[in-house]
Amino acid sequence: MATAPRQPRLRTTTREPEELARRLTAWLGGHLPGAKAVDVSVPESNGMSSETLLFDIEHPQPPLRACALRLAADPAAYTIFPVYDMPRQHRTMRLVAEHTDVPVPRVLWLEEDPGPLGAPFFVMERVAGRVPPDVMPYTYEGNWLYEASDAERAHLEDATVRVLARLHDQVPAAEAGFLALEGEGGALRRHVASQRAYYAWVVDGLPRSPLIESAFAKLEDLWPRDEGAAVLNWGDARIGNVIYDGFEPAAVLDWEMACLAPREVDIGWTVYLHRFFQDLTVSFGQSGLPDFLRRERIEERYAELTGHRPRDMEFYTLYAALRHAVVMLRVAYRQVHFGEATVPDDPDALILHHASLAAMVQGSYW
């Protein structure tokens, strides 16, 4: 049986944790006199978009509070996205907490001044639990979700679909107007236009991806006749962005991609991001979790919960794979920037899931 090679850890920051800890302590003292930030750490799972710091507050009232801080990406670190709007994320989390029973961490402070830590950030309470791993992915042997029983995984799957259903149904669209994307046309047309602009930013001065451009063209062939009403989308709707207490969601994280869009944008992302890990695992000779987060079951359960049956899912899963490809291309060019990789003759080879994306474009994937 083949095993996936362990790649060197990618550089995720150019900041020094010790310096961040010192500056955080100074900032905290100005907002909670007598408080001290202790046990400041950067988690190993820190992403390449916004960064996370974990710390405890030592203070008489309360005596100890576990916190997490989301810090906008360091511009010097060849950022994954062009803009990091921390007030927007902070406002989104408060909106979800106010209007739904979707579990989100309680936000404590928002700092829009980049002075204290070098970029805007917000602080939220830290929620205990466990997250399905990305590295190595949860579809690979040797982690808590893979070792769980079929019944336990089925419970986690159902609970996660219920999160999507409640989010889409419970947030009044009028209250989420600040998440509407700029541009002309409906919410879906604006969403796709924003992804085209993101792709143009990624390849500016660099080799373009024929595969990604063919996927954009295929979207036009599959465009839904009826986009449906726009709802608040989580954006990065996947189980790797959920803290679970046992197999029940305890906190939904990472709202930087939240927007107003058709429900299927979130559903397609949930379906495809699991397929991404599943396909990767199979390519290394393991079976993965082929019966977990199956597309037809997610669609059926979502319809039962909301009365809305997901439609045009070939479009939306292709769109999810396309969006993920643009992110993967940016990650690859980031590696090139830091001397961790070189650009091959075929830039499509930089996209880890280029084979599955090509199959979707050809209509032979599902």
From TrEMBL:
Q: Which domain of life is it from?
A: Bacteria
InterPro entries this protein is in? ACAD10_11_N, AGP_Transferase, Aminoglycoside_PTrfase, Kinase-like_dom_sf
List the CDD domains.
Answer: ACAD10_11_N-like (cd05154)
UniProt xrefs under SUPFAM superfamilies = Protein kinase-like (PK-like)
**Domain named Aminoglycoside phosphotransferase: which ranges?**
85-280
Q: Which PANTHER family match?
A: AMINOGLYCOSIDE PHOSPHOTRANSFERASE DOMAIN-CONTAINING PROTEIN-RELATED (PTHR21310:SF40), AMINOGLYCOSIDE PHOSPHOTRANSFERASE-RELATED-RELATED (PTHR21310)
Protein name from the UniProt record: Phosphotransferase
Species whose genome carries this gene: Streptomyces lasiicapitis
